[in-house]
Amino acid sequence: MSQLERIYAFHQKLKNGRFPNARTLMDEFELSRATAHRDISYMRDRLLAPMAFDSSRKGFYYTEDDFSLPFEDSPKLLFLMALLNKMADEAGLGGLPEMQKLEKRLSELIAPGYDRLMDNVLCRWIEVETLNPAVFETIVEAVVKDCFLDISYSSIEGQKSGRSLEPQRLINYQGRWYLLAFCLLRKEHRLFHMARIDSAAIGRRQSGKAHPAENSFIDESFGIFPGKPAYTAKIQFSGTAAELIRRQFWHEKQSIEETKEGICLSLPVNDDREIIMKILQYGSKAKVLQPQSLRERVAKEITKMAECYAVSLSDR
Q: Most distant CA pair in the chain: distance in Å?
């Protein structure tokens, strides 16, 4: 049994007025006298437990009735810790040894209420990707230590390349992990999809970032595609889609106008790909108003989709 579990057991006896002492710990947990005294000293000196010794009762008691140990009787903190662990699972990090160790330590620290809450909290993302633990750990180390990073990378088309990077920031977006880095090959900042990094190796330490990325680089435009906006998209949402979008946050510079049909959402866009997927998600309840180039791309995609289904229907 861990020290924290012993401390919680000792704490409960103090709260119940049972005047525990070193012998209590020794008998209950089969400890040496030195270990039992270290536990008591830890409570008094590190956890600031207001304990005093009653010589007539040969045991300790609390001089303050309202003292509690960290996380004890705190549902909000229990929920926060459980939520963070659930989110780590959904972000593809649950299989990392470090996360499993942290989970075990937290369950020991926070006591039985934590396990019970973990069983009753659910976080569900779609399209969650698993990562190679060795690659992820190497990237984290490079970011923390300000080291260059050498990677083998596969594009979405399957083309492999070697890259030397100045890593800048780890980004989790919709269940996927990305690395924002300055690519020494392309001489510009790029986002690297971490699930497509086949291998990674730590390089030499940087003396400060030679090519720091400004926060605005990833914040200026909608979605995961960074950079300066190419245009402002205006999208008309109607019916149930309007009711959903009215309460959603897509970008910090978005604006929503009420219209007869529902709402009009305006937001800055750098790359068409993700915004087109979002528009198509709402079917006929979403219509692009501006720019014309986006209207045409969405219309072209809808035509291709209709052609796919037309072929299927003609086969019947």
A: 94
**Contacts of the segment 106-111: beta carbons below 8 A, 24+ positions apart:** 106/81, 108/2, 108/4, 108/5, 109/4, 109/70, 109/71, 110/71, 110/77, 110/78, 110/81, 111/8, 111/71, 111/72
* Nearest residue to 85 via CA among 103, 61, 108: 103
Tell me the pLDDT tens digit for each residue of 39-48. Answer: 999 999 988 8
Q: Which of 76, 279, 91, 160 is nearest to 288 (CA)?
A: 279
**Rounded Cα–Cα distance for residues 316 and 314 (Å):** 5
Radius of gyration over alpha carbons of the chain, in Å? 28
Q: What are the structural domains of the chain?
A: 3-62 (1.10.10), 75-118 (no CATH), 133-213 (2.30.30), 231-311 (3.30.70)
CA-to-CA distance for 244 and 185, rounded, in angstroms?
A: 43
Is the full-model pTM beyond 0.85?
Answer: no
Answer whether 157's CB lies under 8 Å from 205's CB.
Answer: no
Three-state DSSP class for residue 113:
helix
- Nearest 10 degrees: Cα torsion 188, 194, 196, 187: 10
Q: What is the mean pLDDT of the chain?
A: 86
Residue 75: pLDDT over 90: no
* pLDDT one-digit tens code per residue, 11-37: 989 999 999 999 999 999 899 999 999
Task: Indicate the length of the chain as a whole number.
Answer: 316
Which pLDDT tens digit goes with each residue over 261-280? 999 999 999 999 999 999 99
CA 248 to chain CA centroid, nearest Å: 19
Residues 6+ apart with CB under 8 A from 237: 244, 245, 262, 263, 264, 265, 282, 285, 286
